[in-house]
Amino acid sequence: MQSFRSLRVWEKAHKLTLDIYTSSKTFPREEMYGLTSQMRRSSASVGMNIAEGCCRKGNVEMGRFLQIAMAVEVKRMLSFLMQKVKAVN
């Protein structure tokens, strides 16, 4: 079992989470329970899945959790794009 904190990918995911929490403070109030919440939860989930994968036995399980983390990141990126579209309209 390796420490997730030593992984560069986890460090980047953690920084992304902190950045999203900071920047989402400026989102419109009406988005607090919608898009803001979704982006915060999904960004936190990426790092959590990486950490959980590190606690599992073997590369197969680690790979599975990395795939989940990637899928969550795609979901977060789509949420971000939705925010951009709303801002334009």
Order of helices and strands: HHH
The span between the termini is 48 Å
Strand fraction: under 5%
Shape: elongated
Number of domains: 1
**SS element count, helices:** 3
- Helix-and-strand structural type: mainly alpha
Uncertain parts = none
- Outline the biggest β-sheet: none
The pLDDT mean sits at: 86
For this structure, the CATH topology is: de novo design (two linked rop proteins)
Helicity range of the residues?
Answer: over 70%
Q: What can you tell me about this protein's structure?
A:
- With 89 residues, the protein is mainly α.
- It has one domain: 23S rRNA-intervening sequence (de novo design (two linked rop proteins), Up-down Bundle).
- It contains 3 helices and no strands.
- It has helices at residues 8-23, 35-54, 58-88.
- Helix 1 runs antiparallel to helix 2 (35-54) and helix 2 packs antiparallel against helix 3.
- The relative contact order is 0.15.
- The mean pLDDT is 86.
